[in-house]
Specification:
The complex is a heterodimer of chains A (about 270) and B (about 290).
Chain A: E1 4-7, H1 10-15, E2 18-33, H2 45-49, E3 53-68, E4 72-76, H3 83-91, E5 98-104, E6 107-110, H4 123-133, H5 138-152, H6 167-179, E7 185-189, H7 197-212, E8 216-220, H8 224-230, E9 233-238, E10 241-246, H9 248-261
Parallel strand pairs in A: 4-8, 4-9, 6-7, 7-8
Antiparallel strand pairs in A: 2-3, 2-5, 9-10
Helix pairs in contact in A: 4-5, 5-6, 6-7
Chain B: E1 22-26, H1 35-44, H2 46-61, H3 70-89, H4 96-123, H5 128-133, H6 140-166, H7 178-202, H8 205-220, H9 232-239, H10 244-256, H11 262-286, H12 290-293
Classes of the chains: A alpha/beta (about 270), B mainly alpha (about 290).
């Protein structure tokens, strides 16, 4: 895996009740962009004249976060607050710029479109290839394949290219794959927004089942009702910083107040 | 890059499975990821290569009428095009059977490596969703691009073998060298695929310029012409191409019907080693930044 630094012995893993521990985590992206031409530039020359600039985007700044085993942590925040980046850093996809992340257990990610990376391939191939890339045993994937296909309710669609799927169908398949990988820690990014009402009910039942089995879940969603229903704890991210943490009702209330008034965010809350 | 804190495990003890243990991600200041852990993770996913290569070819031909037949049609049409261009239009060759044989073998061999380069250059950039959403050793991507190129090369070899038999080209013990040449060429192709993959992530112009570079490389390689048609002064330049020793040994074994030249094999092995080593090192040095650069 890209930034695995070390693995400790399993005894140490079970000794601590913390599943995910994040310390002083900062992440930044480098992007290049072309500033708009100055007003004086000619219509044609302006296209060529402007220089490209490199900009550093601070996605996360000094995040400290402990997620105990069995907790369902909701993460709320505006677009671009760093929610997805936080999940990607925890999954080991995006390297920390500073700080340290410790994971105890096996992670399964359901990040926007984890499955369906190659849309000209069939659903079956995508499940198999996604699972193999995630490091699952090929036999493991085959034995769980039927369960995955059945839960996603895709039937013969599994043999068709994923470009023929509706967004709801892709979402159902992605969710089904993620929850059937028997993860200790499940990272979910906006996946419950897809699927029809019946599937939403089924998926939240499945999530509750996972929580009951002491699974740890980190859940990013703009659907505040989903967070309220499932999360046992909630954090609010704003421009890469942790604004508040605590009871989902209270944190959501804070966030909702901010979102409605678009006021400046209140002072950083303590952990409790 | 990453602080490579190697696990101080005793050599006899089994490596802790990352599923049970603690996984730590830290900021990295440079260097390579811990190699043993990396290679173990890569090996665990070896089936990905085969499935990815197969699925990719299946996906490419899914919309066409001829379907899988295209993997055979492509090399035949390719060879016909160049044969008409060079032999018929230019009337450059005296013995057209001999010329066609050497054209086929060299062209197919060239396409194996150039396909690996082409597919390698898009392997990481084109797998954005997978790279953004799953943690895995990214070397898997250019390696599977090379596996795809190899899968495309096998039907070409079959087409050539049919021609070889029909045209009565030499058969003999020298053909035992074919697997060795194939292994050396695969090493070179995989290494170049890694280099192209990492170059294209950081400088997207690589992918744009590559088709022209490949075309130029084709004209500068002994594919459409043979080395004895080259003026003395240019021979050295032609021979310096990383693909030259491979193409020359293919020609010796298949067309001349003699054992491969030892010095050429050493050169081919040297190029393969350099390409693999440089490609893998640069790729692994840079791969942890892929997710923030896609």
């Amino acid at each position: 895996m890209p930034s695995v630094s070390k693995h400790l012995a399993p005894e140490e893993a079970t000794a601590s009740p913390t599943a995910v521990s994040v310390r002083e985590l900062s992440v930044s992206y480098r992007t290049t962009f072309q500033p708009p031409p100055l007003p004086g530039a000619g219509r044609w020359t302006g296209m060529w004249a402007s220089r490209r600039r490199v900009q550093q985007v601070q996605a996360l700044l000094d995040i400290d976060l402990d997620v105990p085993r069995g907790e369902v942590l909701g993460i709320v925040g505006a677009n671009g607050a760093g929610k997805s980046t936080l999940l990607r850093a925890i999954a080991g996809i995006v390297p920390p710029e500073r700080g340290r992340i410790e994971i105890r257990g096996r992670i399964s990610t359901l990040l926007s479109l984890g499955v369906g990376f190659n849309r000209s391939l069939s659903g079956r191939d995508n499940v198999l290839l996604g699972g193999l890339a995630a490091g699952l045993d090929p036999e493991d994937i085959r034995s769980r394949y039927d369960e995955i296909a059945e839960f996603a309710e895709l039937g013969e669609h599994m043999e068709r290219p994923m470009k023929t799927y509706s967004s709801g169908m892709s979402g159902r398949l992605a969710f089904s794959v993620a929850v059937h990988m028997n993860p200790d820690i499940l990272l979910i990014d906006e996946a419950l927004a897809t699927g029809d009402a019946a599937f939403k009910a089924k998926s939240s039942a499945k999530m509750q089942e996972l929580c009951a089995n002491a699974g740890t879940i980190l859940l990013v969603s703009h659907g505040l009702a989903v967070i309220r229903d499932l999360a046992t704890e909630c954090v609010w991210l704003h421009r890469g910083q942790l604004m508040s943490r605590g009871d989902p009702e209270e944190v959501i209330a804070d966030y909702a107040t901010y979102a409605q008034t678009k006021q400046h965010a209140p002072a950083i809350y303590d952990d409790e | 890059m990453s602080v490579a804190v190697a696990p101080p495990a005793p050599p006899s003890a089994p490596q802790p499975d990352p599923r049970d243990g603690v996984t730590v991600f830290e900021a990295h200041q440079g260097g390579l990821p811990p190699l043993r852990a990396y290679m173990r993770e890569l090996w665990r996913r070896r089936q990905f290569l085969v499935h990815m290569a197969r699925a990719k070819l299946k996906g490419e031909h899914a919309d066409t009428l001829a379907g899988k037949l295209w993997t055979l049609l492509n090399p035949i049409l390719l060879a016909m095009t160049y044969f008409i261009l060079v032999a018929v239009l230019l009337q450059a060759q005296s013995d057209s059977t001999l010329y066609l044989g050497s054209l086929l073998s060299a062209l197919f061999a060239f396409y194996y490596t150039s396909n690996a380069l082409r597919m390698g250059s898009s392997s990481v950039v084109g797998a954005g969703n997978l790279v953004m959403n799953t943690a895995f050793p990214r070397l898997l991507l250019p390696l599977s691009a090379c596996a795809s190129a190899l899968l495309l090369f096998l039907p070409m070899l079959a087409v050539y073998a049919a021609f070889h038999l029909v045209a009565g080209f030499p058969l003999g013990p020298q053909l035992l060298a074919v697997p060795l040449i194939l292994v050396l060429q695969t090493g070179l192709s995989a290494g170049l695929a890694m280099l192209m993959a990492v170059a294209n992530v950081f400088v997207r112009d690589t992918g744009r310029a590559l088709p022209y570079a490949i075309r130029l490389w084709l004209y500068l390689s002994p594919v459409l012409w043979t080395i004895d048609q080259v003026p003395e002064s240019a021979v050295r330049i032609v021979q310096f191409s990383p693909l030259y020793p491979i193409l020359a040994t293919w020609h010796q074994v298949l067309i001349d019907g003699r054992g491969p030249d030892g010095w050429l094999l050493i050169q081919a092995g040297g190029w393969a080693f350099v390409a693999l080593f440089a490609g893998a090192a640069l790729f692994m040095y840079k791969e942890r930044d892929f997710a923030v650069r896609l």
